[in-house]
Amino acid sequence: MSTENDESSERPKELVTDENISKIHKMILNDRKLNLNEVADTLKISAKRVHHIIHEYLGMRKLCAKLVPHKLTFDQNNDELMIRSSV
Question: How close are the terminal C-alpha atoms of the chain, in Å?
């Protein structure tokens, strides 16, 4: 009896492709209020993998129900604070 899985039963090993990263990035830029499940359903990949791509490859995080880059410049931070205070 072998302890290794059959190749035919394995899931694709790599879903982090340039194509998926690009698609997720475009989706987020078009609608920053998307949630992980909506993106995952659209691309037919797991929400866990979408989360990994957004945070590790795109360097974004959730801030006030919008995905934004981790590091904002001083001007971007001020713009974000002005937008949040006007809502």
Answer: 63
**Separation CA 38–CA 62 (nearest Å):** 15
Q: Please write the tens of the pLDDT for every residue from 16-38.
A: 889 999 999 999 888 878 888 99
Task: Kindly report the length of the chain.
Answer: 87
What distances in angstroms separate CA 46 from CA 16, 23, 36, 39, 83, one per listed residue?
11, 14, 9, 9, 32
CATH architecture of 15-86: Orthogonal Bundle (1.10)
pTM value > 0.70:
no
Of 10-14, 35-39, 56-60, 62-66, give the lowest mean pLDDT range. Answer: 10-14
Supply 58's token pair: 């795109």
Nearest to 60 by CA among 82, 84, 39: 39
Each domain of the chain, given as residue ranges in start order, spans: 15-86
